[in-house]
């Protein structure tokens, strides 16, 4: 199992030289092409820094707390037998910590047939987050590489034959082609670990088709301190309002490093009349 060095338990990387940044902003304020170049250069530096932190094992969530919630979820979905447990889906992977923890929970529960799917841009947050209203969100934040994540999963003991990383922004990867390519079917635990409403909402819509009877849906960024309108809670609220075929029951929270992190629900598909 991986015991990569753990960096500061912060979701947000420190920003270097903020005063210099302000001066640069003022200097290019009158020249849109220069402003564009500066924005792109900053994004490139930000991605480089996140990639470096991701490669050296930064964890942006508390692995033990999440593993505990995974164990509870697996206990519930396997209560009528291991053969009732379908795939694990994760939308929002960063450098793979939650997949590693899910794999440990699966091994402990003897559920070694469950496949794990991880969807992520691996380029971090999209450019559109700069217009979404949170000063903490920046394009390229959480960037990693597919190779880094695969390496971390291998070091963490996640079997390659049962784990699949699907690279790209959700609007390009959450498609019928992906479903067909991987012969995706029933899912029993679904982790939506993106902070923005604009990503969490389509992620939930995509995941819904795999809840054939019941699943635990874990909203990993439930307690991210952003206004309701732009965050994951709105995505879940709207999703449930749009899908009366699902009945939800509360499945509790789990902790992050410095505050509550995620919240889970048991979703059951209602019998058709
Ligand atoms: C909070 S991190 C996930 C943390 C992760 N579960 C872990 O174990 O560390 C959120 C991830 O969502 C990804 N992401 C955000 N918006 C996305 C989108 N529209 N399409 C694909 N990935 C996206 C980011 O690249 C980032 O890796």
Explain this structure.
The protein has helices spanning 18-28, 32-55, 63-77, 97-108, 146-155, 170-173, 176-181, 197-208, 232-242, and strands at residues 87-91, 116-120, 163-167, 187-192, 214-219, 246-255, 260-269. It has 273 residues and is an alpha/beta fold. A seven-stranded mixed beta sheet has the order 3-2-1-4-5-7-6, with helices on both faces. The protein contains nine helices and seven strands. Helix content is 38%, strand content 17%. Mean pLDDT is 92; it is low at 1-11. The site of S-adenosylmethionine (SAM) has 21 residues, from helix 4.
Query: By helix and strand content, what is the structural category?
Result: alpha/beta
Going by CATH, what is the homologous superfamily?
Vaccinia Virus protein VP39
Q: What is the CATH architecture descriptor?
A: 3-Layer(aba) Sandwich
Any low-confidence stretches, pLDDT <50, length ≥5?
Answer: 1-11
Quick structural summary:
The protein has 273 residues and is an alpha/beta fold. 38% of the residues lie in helices and 17% in strands.
Notable features of this structure?
alpha/beta; seven-stranded mixed beta sheet; binds S-adenosylmethionine; 9 helices; disordered N terminus
